[in-house]
Amino acid sequence: MRGRRADDASMKDRRRRDGGGGGKFSRSSSSFTFSFALFLLCFALFSVVALSTFRLFGVSFRPVLLPTWRNPTMNAISGEYPLSRIDLRASNSNLSPAGLRIEEAVAFPDSVLLFLKPQSFAAIANLRCIYFLSQSAESHLSLPALSSSSASSCVRCPLPLKADVFNISLSETSLPQLPPILPLRSDHLAYASVLDTRDNTTVIFAKGHNLRPARLSNPNSFECIFGWDFSHPKFSLSSEVLSAAQEIFRCRTPLSILQRRHNSPSIFPFVSVRFKGHGSIPLPSIARPEPLSSPQMPHRPPKAHLMCVCTMLRNQARFLQEWIIYHSRIGVERWFIYDNNSDDDLEQVVQGLFTQWRIMISLHEWPWLKTQEAGFAHCALRARESCKWVGFIDVDEFLYFPSNFKLHDVLRNYSRSPSVAELRTTCHSFGPSGRKTAPPEGVMVGYSCRISPPERHKSIIRPEALNPSLINVVHHFHLKDGMKFVNMDVRVMVINHYKYQVWEVFKEKFHRRVATYVADWQDDENVGSKDRAPGLGTKAVEPSDWANRFCEVNDTGLRNWVLQAFVDPNTGHLPW
C-alpha cells in the first residue's frame, strides 16, 4: 500500500510538471494565448501614443490627417477647378524622355508663372502655353509664352481672358506637350521659407492670413505644418508658431527636419501655416525650407563684409550700373538684388558688372506681388552671416556725405557701440530739374533741384540685432530689446532720392507698388499719402508743368563731387 501511494504521488508530480495532463501541446497553447494577448496590449498602447500629441525638444508632433483638394471647403477656395491638383501632380510623374516637368504653377493677376524641372529647360525658345478651360480635351487655348529664364527655371505665360478656372501646360515643336497642372492662387499661398540654423527655427513667408502691418499677431492662433503634399490625406508634422507678423511666421523646426539638413539637404518637405481649430486647412504651399549657411561653432568668424545692400526692383536694369558702380566705389561690398518680375535685360547687366568690375551681386528671383517687407526680411536673414551692416535702399536712392566723411568710417564709428543697431538716414527728394528727357550722364549729375523739407528715411541695420519677428515697414525694422536706432545728422550722411524724374521714367511708378500695405497709384485709395506724387491723382497723365515741379532748393553737392571724383581724365566720361 505504501508503494502504491508513492507511485500515485510520483504520477501527480509528473502531471503537475507536465502542465496538468495536456502534455507539450497544452503548454504551447497556453504560451501562444499569453503571447497574443501581450501583442494586442502593446499594439493598443502604441496606437494611443502614435495618434496623440507628444512633445520632443519643444516640438509638438501630431500626425495630422490633411484633407484633399477636392472637398467642399477647398472648393470654396479653388473656385471649383475642373481637375484636382493631386491628380495633376501624379500625372507629372511620367513625362517626356528628357524628364521635363512643370513642378508648380501660380496664377497672378496678369500672368501665370510656371516652375520647371530640370532648370536648364526653362530657356527653350518658342514655348507655347496651353490652357484647358474645361475637362474636355478639345476646349483649350494656345498662346506664346511671355518670357522664360534658365537662371530662375521659370516660364511666364499670359493670363487667358475670361478664364477664371483653367489648367495649364507647355508645348514646343521639339518636345511633347506636358501634362497640365492646376495653378495655385498667388494671394493664398505659402511662397517661401528659410531654415534659420542659429536657433533651429523655420521662417515661412505666406499670403492669405491678412495680418495687420507693423504689429505682432497672436502666434497661438496658428500652427506650422510640414509635409510632402497638403492635398493628400496623409500624416504631417505640426509645430509651434513662435511669432506671427505681417506675412512672416517663425516656427519651431521638428527634429526630423533638422536631421534631414545633414542627411538629405536637397530634399525638404513643403511647409505651410494654418489657423488652429477643427477643420482648419493649411495654406497651399510651394515653399520648402532653404537652409542658411551658418557655422555651428561657439565663436563665429568675423563677417566678410562691413557694408552690404539689399534692394527689390522691377525693370530697372538701365539705371543699375550708375547705382552699383557709385556705391561700390564709396564702400558697399556686396549686393542682394530681389528681382520682382523684370522683363528687361537685368541678368545681362548684372553679369556685365561682375565681368568688368568684379562686383559681388546675388540676383534672387522674387516674383511675389506686394511683398517688399517680406523680401527685405528674407534678405536680412541671407545677409546676416556675411554682412555686418546692411542698407535697404532703392535704385533711385544714393548715399551722400556732405562733409566728406567716408562710409566705412561712419560704420566703424557706430560699430563701437554694441547697442546701436540701426542708422536712420534722411531722404531728400529731387525733381525733374527742368528736364524733359532722361539725362544720359545719369541721375546724380542730371538732377540737381529738390524739395526743401526731407521726406521719410531709409535704414542701415545690423542684421543680427533685428527682432525675431522680422517686422519692418520698408524704411526700418523692429529691433531686439535693448537695441536702439540713431538718426543720422544730415551733415554727415543723407540720401539723395531721385524720386520725381522725367515723366518717361516716373510714370512707371503707376504700374504697381511693391510694398504690401501701400495702395497702387491707380487705386482711388490713400490719395494723400506721401508715397504718391502730390496732385497727380490716379491717372498716368503728364502735367504740363511736370519738368519744373518739385524744385525748391538747388542742391549740387553730390553732382559736383561725382564730377570731381568719377570722371575719367583721359576721356571725360563717367564710368557708367
UniProtKB/TrEMBL annotation:
It holds the Pfam family Glyco_transf_92. It is a single-pass membrane protein. Keywords: Glycosyltransferase, Membrane, Transferase, Transmembrane, Transmembrane helix. Residues 1-28 are annotated as: Disordered. It is an enzyme of class 2 (transferase). Residues 1-19 have a biased composition (Basic and acidic residues). Its EC number is 2.4.1.-. InterPro entries: Glyco_transf_92 (IPR008166). Its main location: membrane. One of its GO terms (molecular function) is glycosyltransferase activity. GO terms for cellular component: membrane. It comes from the Eukaryota. It is found in: Membrane. The keyword Glycosyltransferase applies. PANTHER family: GLYCOSYLTRANSFERASE FAMILY 92 PROTEIN (PTHR21461). Belongs to the glycosyltransferase 92 family. This is Glycosyltransferase family 92 protein. It comes from Dendrobium thyrsiflorum (Pinecone-like raceme dendrobium).
